[in-house]
Every structure is written in structure tokens, then in C-alpha cells.
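Protocol step 4 of 6: record predicted structures for both targets in the notebook before any analysis. Target 1:
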Amino acid sequence: MYKIINMGLREVKMELEKLDKDKLINLIVDLYKNNKSAKEFFDFYVQPNDLELFKKYRDKVFEAFYPKRGFGYKLKDGKQAISD
């Protein structure tokens, strides 16, 4: 049985420092492929476009409170867009 270990930033940093460049690149590529928020982060890191990112999340917040269909609002979706 596997035990989940919660590591802090210090431990993660120490483990990453042990990796050589190729392994680190492969780890980042896997993260990019498998995690949507990591993909957005790296896309923004490589090509920062503040206006496009602002518009994307502004539209998500607007849609949460003023949906195109129906009358209800989704407070959870609006809060999530703001925190993202």
C-alpha cells in the first residue's frame, strides 16, 4: 500500500535540485501535458498576454452571474474564475 507524503516547498526544491537537466525537462513536459492549470501557467510564462488572459477570466465571471441561458447564477464558478 502506498503512503501519500505531503512535502513542503523546501523538500520539493531539494528533490528538484537532485535531477539533471533532461529529467527536469521531462518532468515539466509531463506536468504541461497532464495539468490544465500548469499548461496555462507555462503558456503565459512563455508568451505573456495580460489582456487576453484578463478577457478570458472576465468572460467566465460574467457568464457565472449572467448566463446566456436561464436565470440562475453559479457563484462557485465565478469564485473559481477569480481565484484562477
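Target 2:
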Amino acid sequence: MASDQTDCGTAHGSEDGKQYWYHGDKAALTRRLKRVEGQIRGIQRMIDEDEYCIDVLTQISASTKGLQAVALNLLEGHLAHCVAEAQVSGDPTAAQAKVKEASDAVARLLRT
């Protein structure tokens, strides 16, 4: 998912020349997302096999929690890296923009 927001941190040679702070956590994030992907496939199978609705809802809840954990990890990192870097940059407009970006992300997460 591409963002039109500015980069935080130094670019380090990915395809588009950017490498965000979470680059070192990619393996852990990918493992968690693959687990959620498996849970979603399981939910599809449960629906196909006419499993009990409460059991399906339980699995939906588990996969939702998995995605929320990824989101929280990314949000914490954004605050610790992107917002913090903007704060120390001395540019109050950039700092305000990063705080607003984080606030908007939290609002989106709470709406779901």
C-alpha cells in the first residue's frame, strides 16, 4: 500500500530507493501476516464446510487481533522513528505533519 506521505529516515536501496524503519522487522511482520493469512483461509474453509457460526466468529476475532498486533507494531515504530525524527529535525511543520499522520492512523484503526 503506497503512501503519498513523506519518508522518515534514510533511504537504503529498495526498489523505489526507500527503506523504512521496519526493514529490520520485516521477517517478524511477514511471519505474523502469513499466520493471519492462514487464519483467513481457515475461515473460508469453515464457511465452505458449514461450520458453527460462533466458531467462525471466534476465528474472525483471532485474525482481527493478529492484524491489530501488526498495526500496533507499525504505529509504535512510526512514533518512535518517524515522529521522533521529525521532532528533532527542528522543522515544526514536519513534526506537526508526522503527529497528524499518526493521529489519523489511530482514528482509522479505531473506526474498524
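Step 5 preliminary note on target 2. Helices lie at 26-48, 53-88, 92-111. Residues 21-111 form a domain with the Methane Monooxygenase Hydroxylase; Chain G, domain 1 fold (CATH 1.20.58.1000).
Proceed to step 6 after PI sign-off.
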